[in-house]
Amino acid sequence: MIAGATRGSGGPALARHLMSRKGGQTVEVMPARGLAAEHLRDQLRELVASSAHGRTDRPVHHVHIDPPPDCSDPDAVIATFLDRYEAEFGLQNSQRAGVYHVKAGRKHAHVVWSLVRDDGSVVSLAHDHARREKVSRIVEFECGLPFTKGKHNRSAAAALLKEGRADVSDAMLAAGLLDGRRPVAHSTPRQRAQAERTAVPLDEIRTQALAAWQASDDARSFAVALHSFDFSVATGESGYVLIDRSGSVHSLNRVLAAAARAEGVEKITSAAVRSRLRGINFQNVEEAKNARSERRNTNSGDRRAGGIGAPVTAPEPPRRADRRDEPVGRAQGLVAGDRRDFGSSHERVAAARKRIRDHAAAQRIGDIDLQDLIRNKGEVMAKIRAQNFKAKILAEVAPAGFNAHAFSDDLRMIQKPTPARPAARIMMIDGGWLEYDAAGRSIRTWGPTGRAQILAAALADKLGVEPEHLAKTASVGADVDALKVTKVSEDTVNSLVLWWTARGYSATDGPDGCWVTAGYARIRDTGDQLEIHGGLTVKVIDATILKAKEAWGGGVYLDGDWTQDEQDKLWIAAQRAGVKVENCQPSLSIQDAWQREQAASAKSIKTICAARSAIAEATDVRDAAAGDLEAMHRLPQPLQAFVVSHLDDDQRRHLSGQSVADITAALPRFRDLGQSELEEYERTGRTFTPPKPRRDDRDRNAAHTYSQ
After folding, report:
1. Model confidence at 346, in pLDDT bands (50, 70, 90)?
2. How many angstroms separate the CA atoms of 526 and 536, rounded?
3. Measuring CA to CA, which residue among 209, 303, 321 is closest to residue 265?
4. At the topology level of CATH, where does 2-174 sit?
5. Is residue 382 predicted with pLDDT exceeding 90?
6. Distance in angstroms (rounded) separating the CA atoms of residues 353 and 344
7. DSSP label at residue 629
8. In DSSP terms, which residues pair with 7 in a beta bridge?
9. Where in the chain are the domains?
10. Spans of biased composition, class Basic and acidic residues (predicted)?
């Protein structure tokens, strides 16, 4: 019989599990002991509450008792187990609650005890696994059940001898429980629950992981072979882990070790796994899951090769603020004509602007034509209302107490935050852009320097942060002719916004083009030219390659001064995507890296093919053993000779019932045996030909037999 136990704090989850009727299961509540409540949920609450004085945060002990399926009297077995178990651990006077479950005609029990005694001391569960197996062997002996070969049988037998139960120990010895290697469970309760939850069978994971291991010889080929099964490798807290297609995490060492043990092949140790995966810095679990989610949820073009368990992307280089941009002093001079005034407090900026407006008003007040003002009062009032409206929106998104009216004349457009874009986006009348994220406490500007920097300085002073400016880094075009500066029509901008939005990007229309958010950076798209602000990040490169592939016919032309590092990054990304790059001089080192990557890619394809070929060949061996003539003719001659000549009818019948995973691991041995048969044919002067199948007329249901 099987019994398992857990220890915890109790709670609603345990009550839900015990009362679950999933899969047609029936539930019968046991009579409680030492508890006043009638319902199980209340009994568990009472048990936990009465244990509050104990010196432990895990006062609840939960045991499940599973008599064999063919047991004639499961109630008697459960009662015997409870009696022996409580005597073993000293739980005779502890509060107790429990249930009986009946599913598909099989009955088992769940029992929960309080481990806290009246004086606050806690019942000891030391060596509970071995002691629980000892109790199980006693119950099996006393109830006439077949013995179960457990992991701790030797310890249990030694304890039984010491306690005077030589009868049970001798029966265990006679049953062979103390001989041979210690058994290893196929899976743990947690693994079985995980497989049930994710619908990904554990045997399938192990078989495919072992096939990938056997078909590879280094870290990259192993990761690529795993990717063919939609698996990936990541770095966990205690070593390498395997992430299956459902996103669940498994210990890579344990998966491979269990698969090798099940197939009877050479043991795969943790040291062997570390040795093979040495040299590649794999992503951590969270990064690998995010990458998997992004690959599944995005349709924005081809991604970089090797994303499966690939090396972690190197961090982006620091953003340079001194590249091909107007001197900061121009923006600073707009405040008070002095570099030191840039970044002054909001009050000082507002006061300076007010003085300028008052001076201009004093100069023009004498030139006002009252009659003209009366004639155009509708237009004047519309402008005033528009300015007040913009100031109102700015006040809503700005920090509390910010004087938005001081900047109403500078605002062209304001986009409020949305769930998809938590930052407010503001366009100034001079074409500059500002992005204000209240939750993230960040302020960024890009585009022409000027009024956006003034507003950013005021907002940053109110928020207590430093504003950032995304300076123009570089630009690219569809070709050299596309770099000529032309005015962008409104229809073109709208179509560009729709184009980028359809590909999962955040795009904003403006009079100077379509502005695209690419991670930290911003890209201005005018149709045949992209202007990059904020540095050449990985996301900028992805967006550029996407534009080149889908809108520019697979080509891109670099404009301006690009550093060698920037050229190398864009060039190798373009090579991976099949995009031609002009006006670019990649370094010799990056060209060599690309050659090595192509060679590794070819090897990866070969590795995947080998893994899949082995599984397909194993399937044909199984089907050929069952009499499938087409499968027989697909096999290479050594395997044909193995099935036909080396095996007899009983062996073929046995082989046809084996799993593909078992046969895959044994293929090399089958080939050697088949080759020996072919050599024997040659020595005797015979010629081996694929056989013809026939049915044994005496038994229509028997497996196929073969004759030469």
Report:
1. very low
2. 18
3. 209
4. BirA Bifunctional Protein; domain 2 (3.30.930)
5. no
6. 13
7. H
8. 61
9. 2-174, 194-297, 328-470, 472-586, 603-707
10. 287-305, 317-328, 693-702
